[in-house]
Amino acid sequence: MADMMSVKEAAVRWSIPESLVTRYCRAGRVAGAVKNGRAWQIPVGTQKPKDIRKTSNMPAQTAAKRPLPIGVSDFRIACDQYYYIDKTLLIKDFIDERPVVSLFTRPRRFGKTLTMDMLRTFFEQSDEDTSRYFTDKKIWSCGDVYRSYQGKYPVIFLSFKDVKCQTWEETYDLMSKLIRQEFKRHSELASSTVITNPDYYRKIVSETATENDYMLSLMYLSQMLHEHHKVAPIIIIDEYDTPIQQGHACAFYDKIVLFMRNMFSGGLKDNRHLSYGFLTGILRVAKESIFSGLNNLCVNSVLDNKYSQYFGFTPEEVKEMAAYYGASEKYDEICIWYDGYRFGKTEIFNPWSVINYFYRDCEPRAYWSSTGSNDIIGEILAGADEDIYERLRTLLHGESFTTLIDTSVIYPQVKKNPSSIYSFLLVAGYLKVLNTAPAFSGDFMCEVALPNREIAQVYNKEILEKLDAIVPQSIAAAIQEAIYTNNAAALQKQLRRFLLESVSYHDTVGETFYHGLILGLCAMTNNHYYITSNRESGEGRYGIQLMPRDLSVPGILIELKAAKNCSADELAALAQTALRQIGIKMYDMEMTAKGVVRIFKYGVAFSGKHVEVATD
Questions:
Q1: pLDDT tens digits along 163-220
Q2: Helices 253-268 and 217-229 meet at what angle, rounded to 10?
Q3: Which of 160, 178, 177 is nearest to 244 (CA)?
Q4: Nearest to residue 100, comparing CAs of 232, 215, 217?
Q5: Segment 398-415 mean pLDDT
C-alpha cells in the first residue's frame, strides 16, 4: 500500500487550511483518498486539487487601473476588486506574541474596520477557501507556522461603527439587533446537540431576550461556539467606543458604559472559552470605566510603536500608490495636506484623505473633516480659558507646545478637566506628536502640533462657527476674500466693519471676548498672518498685531481702549486717542524693520455695547 499522509500533513504541503483538505476529500477531488475511521488518509505525493472557482470578474487582458476603495471595509472585496495596500504582516506580529486581548486606538477613518475584517477573514473557519485572499499577501510568505492559523477558529464579529443614536433606547435596540444578527450568523448552533444552553440561543434569535441577557451575550456565545467547534473562538469588536461617544453627547453615558462593561467582562475577562480578543476604537477608555478587572488587555495607542505601521499609510505606501495612478509629482502636495501623523515612531498619512485625493483627480481638500463630528473642538471653545485660547492660537500659527498626555482619557473629562482636551485631540487625530518623554505619573509629556493643512482647515472652520457672535460669518468670508485677492481697500473696510460689529455684540468686553477676538482673527486670516498681542514694539506694548507672512499683504495694528458711560463724542475722541497711541509709541517699528510696507492702523474704543473705530 502506498505511503499515506494525514489531512494535517496535506494542509501543510498544499498551504491550505485543514478544513479545505477535508472538503476536497469529501467531494472526491483528492485521488486515492480513503477514510480510516473518522480521519482521511491521502497518498503521499498527491497534487493539490485545482481551485475551480472564479476568482476575479476582471478580464486578464485589461490594463485598467484598479478602482480606489472609498468606503470599502470588506476585506474580501477590497483585495479582490480594488487597489489594496497589504497590511497582513499585522497577523504575523500578533501571532509572534499572541496577547489574549488587544485594543487598537486610532482616529476615525484610519482603516480600523477593514483591518479587523482582514483578521476575521484570516482566522475564521469557513466553507469558503479563504486562504486564496492571502496566498499573494506578505503573511503567506512567512511560512507554514503562520499559515497553520488560517481558517482555524470560529469568530464572533461585532462592529458598532454605525451605532450613533440620540437616545439610550434607540442605542440598545440597535446594539441588540447587531448581537442577534451575529447569533444568527452562527446558525450551526441552532441544531447543535453538544451545547449546554440551547434555550439561551433560541431566546436571542427569537427576540425574547432581556437587557441582562444581551449583557451576557459574548460570554454565552463564546461558550457555545467552543462547545460546538471544539476550538475556543476569537472575539472581534470594531469601533467599540462609538456608542460611548454618543452616550456622552446625548446624556446616556452611564447607561451605555454599564452595558458595555458587563458585556466585555463576560466575554473578555478570564473567559476560558476565548482564544483571543481584538477591539478597536478612538479612545482607550480608562480601565475603571469599561475594562474593570481586565488585566489581560494589551493597549496599542497612537504613542506605541507596536503595530504602528498597520493603520494609515506609510510614506513608501503613498509613493507607490502615487506612482500606480500616475501622480508621483504630487507627493509633496500630499505631504502638505495629509501627512504629519506619527504613530509610535512611524510617519503616517491619513488614508481616507489620500484615497479621496486620488479619486478627485488630485484636488487637495479637507476630505476627513466631513466623515464625522468635530464637536469636540466646539466643547473646548465653550469652556476655554486664557491658556486654551493661547494654545489654540499657537497651533493655528503652525507652532507647537508641550503638554501632559493621558491616553486613558474618557469623554466626561473633556469638561471636568481642561488639561485633558489635548489628550483627546491627539488620540482623535487633531494633533500630532513631535517629541515624547515619560512623565512621573506614568503618562507622557508630549510636544504637539497640528498634523497638516487639512486639520488646520478643520480648526479654522470650527472656530469660526463656534465664535460666530465674535466673528460674524459674512464678515469672516469678506475678510478672507480680501486677503486672497490682495485687495487692500476691501480688507481695510471689512476689518473696520468686523471691529464695529463684533464688539457691539457684547455688553461687556472682557478677557473671553478679547481672546476670542484674537483666535477669530487667526482663523479668518488662515495663517496669512502671525498674530500676537500685548507685546513690546517701539516704546510700548501694542494691543493686537497681525504680522503678514507675505510682505505683499498689509500689516495690521489694533489698539483697544475701554471706558464707562461715554457719550458719542467722548467715545470718538477715545478711539482717536487709541489711534494716535499707535503712532506716538511707534508700535509699527517691528513690522517696518521686517520690511512691511503697508500697515493698517485701527484705534478701537468701546463703552458697553457702543463702539467707535478710528483709522488712519
A1: 999 999 999 999 999 999 999 999 999 999 999 999 999 999 999 999 999 999 999 9
A2: 20
A3: 160
A4: 232
A5: 79
The b-or-e profile of 432-448 (16+ CB within 10 A means b, else e) is bbeebeeeeeebbebeb
Cite the DSSP H helix spans in 240-344.
242-249, 253-268, 315-324, 331-338
Place of cell 491619513: 350
Q: Which residues of 216-239 are buried (b: 16+ CB within 10 A; e: fewer)?
A: bbbbbbbbbbbbbbeebbbbbbbb
SS3 186: coil
Condensed to tens digits (0 to 9), the pLDDT of residues 528-577 reads: 888 888 888 888 888 889 999 888 888 999 888 888 888 989 989 998 99
In Å, what is the CA distance from 352 to each residue of 329, 338, 370?
A: 20, 9, 11
In the DSSP assignment, the letter for residue 124 is: B
519: cell is 483666535
89 vs 80: CA distance, rounded Å: 18
Structural contact between residues 85 and 313, judged by C-beta atoms closer than 8 angstroms? yes
Q: What are phi and psi of 378, to 5 degrees?
A: -65, -40
- CA pair distance 546, 445, nearest whole angstrom: 31
Cβ neighbours of residue 474 closer than 8 Å, sequence gap 6 or more = none
Where do the H-state alpha helices sit in 74-208? Answer: 75-81, 89-97, 112-123, 144-147, 168-185, 198-205
What is each CA distance from 86 to 130, 182, 459, 529, in whole angstroms? 16, 27, 32, 42
pTM across the whole model = 0.78
CA dihedral sign, ordered 462, 467, 468, 471: negative
- Rounded to whole angstroms, the Cα distance separating 168 from 180 reads 18
SS3 490: helix
Nearest to 524 by CA among 472, 451, 487: 472
Task: Specify the DSSP class assigned to residue 69.
Answer: -
CA 600 remoteness from chain centre:
42
Contact yes or no for 66/72 (Cβ under 8 A): no
| Cell of residue 244, nine digits | 460611548
HSE-CB at 362 with a 13 A cutoff on CA atoms is 16
Which residue bears the cell 509610535?
Answer: 344
Give me the helices (H) in 360-417, please.
Answer: 375-382, 386-396, 413-416
